[in-house]
Amino acid sequence: MSGDLNARLADLPGFPVLSGQRLRLRGPRADDVDAVFALFSDPDVMRYWSHAPMRERMQAEGKVEEMLEAFEHRTMLNWLVADRRSDTAIGSCTLFHFDARHRRAEIGYALRADHWGCGLAAEAVALALDWGFRTLALHRIEADIDPRNAASRRLLLRLGFRSEGLLRERFFVGDDATDSELFGLLAQDRRRRDG
User: Fold this and answer.
1) Helices then strands (H, E): number in the chain?
2) Which ranges constitute the DSSP H helices of 43-142?
3) Is pLDDT of 27 > 90?
């Protein structure tokens, strides 16, 4: 069973494209650099992340290259969240830290601040969860957030995640030690919720 996840990842013919009502999750392209920089350089978006906002456009160029390379090696699926009509990248949604033996992965997400409060992050994360459970046959997906991030906490709980504990001072952002709250979602929880 442990080799199945690696085989499923290896068998992907290309970056999966997932379509929702208002957005698509798609692989990054070279012309997304400015959108990636706009997202990850915004202090509001990065407030609760485990690293500081980008300061230079070349960091976004490196991020896009890193996303493509991670997919090539199947170590991470870092989708860009794109508006379905314009195909403009407005966020990111990532499945990473794949653990084939335990059929587990982590999920992370970010959305441009001017798109907050519209349910787009929930739509993007739900697409990635459904794909991960269905296509990769994951048993468990985890998320860890800064517990001060009330919006992210509400999003995870709304999607069926359970809070499983607080990890004190787990990350440094600059010189500040921050806590991390761990959330978990099992495939059977998701099926029950959607059933």
Assistant:
1) 7, 8
2) 43-46, 57-72, 120-135
3) yes
CB-based contact 105:128 (threshold 8 Å):
no
pLDDT digit string, tens, across residues 75-110: 999 999 999 999 999 999 999 999 999 999 999 999
DSSP annotation string for 126-150: HHHHHHHHHHS--SEEEEEE-TT-H
Using CA atoms, how far residue 69 sits from 29, 60, 66, 72, in Å, is: 12, 14, 5, 5
Tokens for 135, please give them: 């296509």
Q: Which of 40, 65, 191 is nearest to 129 (CA)?
A: 191
Q: What is the DSSP letter of 74?
A: T
> What are the structural domains, with CATH classification, of the chain?
2-194 (3.40.630.30)
